[in-house]
Amino acid sequence: MLQRDCEALMLLQKQGLNKKNPASTIVATLFGTGEDVNWLTGNDFPIDADTELGEIQLNDFFDESQKRAITLGLNRQRAVSVIQGPPGTGKTSVLAELIGLAVKRCERILVTAPSNAAVDNMVEKLTDIGLNVVRVGNPVRMSPSVASKSLGSIVEDRLAEFRGELARKRADLRTDLRHCLKDDSLAAGIRQLLKQLGKSLKQREKETVKEILSTAEVVLCTNTGAADPFIRKLATFDLVVIDEAGQAIEPSCWIPILQGKRIILAGDTCQLAPVVLSRQAMEGGLGVSLLERASKLYGGGLNHMLSVQYRMNDAIASWASKEMYGGLLQSSPSVASHLLADSPFVKASLITQCPLLLLDTRMPYGSLSLGCEEHLDPEGTGSFYNEGEADIVVQHVRSLIFSANKLDCLETPKAPPVPAWKRTRYWYGVNYAVGMLGNVPTGDRVKSAVPRPYPVPCGFPKLGEYSPVLGLIVPPAKKKVSLDPMNFLLSYDVSGNMKFYRAEKWIKEGHWKNNQRLGFLNLITVTEDE
């Protein structure tokens, strides 16, 4: 991966502003030189792209901010567009619609992301709208749900008949070879034919791969996967889309960018930043993603934020909006007041009628609840675990389970027994075994929140269209990455030391102070603490 990043930077330095480079306009825009920049600053970033869309009509399903993002992304005059999608704003749906409309204009598109999971998610979305997509990459790292769209799988299907015919010819030649071992010249001729068959298979495979990739409407891979020789040999893409660009280091983004004429960077600068372990690299600027850098260029003229969220109760979303999005993120009326208790499958109670619930591990007289001290992982990983907090979360999940009107609707995966100290990774209770996070579908996940950054994954059933989700709070090294509201739906529950939350001014004043619906748990009962 590092080698591919370095190769991309060397190519950028060598050919970036070369007029023959199809990505030169992108390079000029992102580095502030060239005619394209003069056009951008002189025309104040026009957003009316109706002439670009032609007869294509935008779906009324989308709100105004989403329609504007699609319009900007389809404007061929904009070499670089940044779409900032806070949690629940429909970023993935917007990208899928945008890509679908671009395909209708006969554009060839390369879609990448820093992780295989993000790429697979886009594969599913684009497949659902009927596009001809090809997923390039290591099949072992792909989700089983997209395996049929992988390049290897498609090649195997295309060559199945050819391979069968080739196998029959090889079998016949080997039979002849066994009968001609005493005739050296004849045996040598048969061996030569066998070699030619092997070469013909390899040649046929190369031709098939080239044909599949050339005729695909959308090619998808990871950022570093775009360095695949088969992709590099393809004709220049009309559009490159990088999803979750905020999580990628900038060098990796240049691998796909240099293979396109236009670029759309999608993600959220207020969520996870690139993972950079080297302090020297951080000080050198690698900790700043290309998404973040591009969103600030030209007074933010390249950036457009999706401004309506459709996932969280407004009591939850308003916190994220105020603290991280300058109050610009609004809640859709369809979800603004939703609670778990609104579901016909859930009984009304404190924990289902309260969008914000804190399960405090510190007792009223000041000391921590029994067993709620942190301990070092005995396996020597350097991680911490807190068995007491895990027990608190287990009890809360039990309460949520028994809030269902019908327990027979609950199904959860099974998990093998584990040591007691690993309870922060597994939950057991009420005869509902729970599996690891990786084995649980995204829509059925539950996470507990603790003062340290280790989630406690659990499979939790959907209750109709409602799905209770517990969020994750960690000590904020950076305010913008300390809250991950992507897992918030109808309720936001955290467990931990109240002293910690009171000490964090941005949490207390920005959220708890304005929403006086806190719960206190002493391992036995839950009561409301106003």
TrEMBL record:
Keywords: ATP-binding, Helicase, Hydrolase, Nucleotide-binding
Source species, domain of life: Eukaryota
Species this protein is from: Taxus chinensis (Chinese yew)
Record protein name field: Helicase ATP-binding domain-containing protein
Stored Gene3D superfamilies: P-loop containing nucleotide triphosphate hydrolases (3.40.50.300)
SUPFAM superfamilies per record: P-loop containing nucleoside triphosphate hydrolases (SSF52540)
Lineage start: Eukaryota, Viridiplantae, Streptophyta, Embryophyta, Tracheophyta
GO molecular function per UniProt: 5'-3' DNA helicase activity; ATP binding; hydrolase activity
Family: Belongs to the DNA2/NAM7 helicase family.
